[in-house]
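Weekly sync, protein design subgroup
Attendees: M.S., D.O., the rotation student, P.L. (late)

Item 1: inverse folding check
M.S. brought a backbone from last month's batch and wanted to see whether the design step gives back something sensible before we order anything. D.O. pointed out we never logged the input encoding, so this time it goes straight into the notes. Structure tokens as presented (74 positions):
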């Protein structure tokens, strides 16, 4: 399983489970969010990664964050 923001590269190298992150400088966080919002985002990222680990896959599979979490960033 790979948490990353360069999805195309992760797919090319054959990472079985890919969970997209925020960006290059802060892949698992976002300093522009309030501490509570960032903590919530990180928790959702961790839960998504755990869901990915529990899912059987046969090829590189992307497990995107849900829309609600991404909209909270805007």
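Designed sequence read out in the meeting:
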């Amino acid at each position: 399983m790979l948490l990353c923001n360069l999805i195309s590269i992760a797919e090319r190298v054959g990472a079985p489970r890919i969970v997209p992150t925020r960006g290059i400088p802060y892949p698992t966080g976002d300093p522009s969010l309030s501490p509570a919002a960032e903590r919530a985002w990180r928790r959702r990222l961790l839960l998504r990664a755990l869901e990915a680990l529990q899912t059987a896959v046969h090829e590189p599979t992307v497990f995107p964050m849900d829309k609600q979490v991404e909209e909270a960033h805007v």
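Discussion: The longest helix spans residues 35-53. Strands lie at 2-4, 17-20, 61-62.
Action: P.L. to compare against the previous round before Friday.
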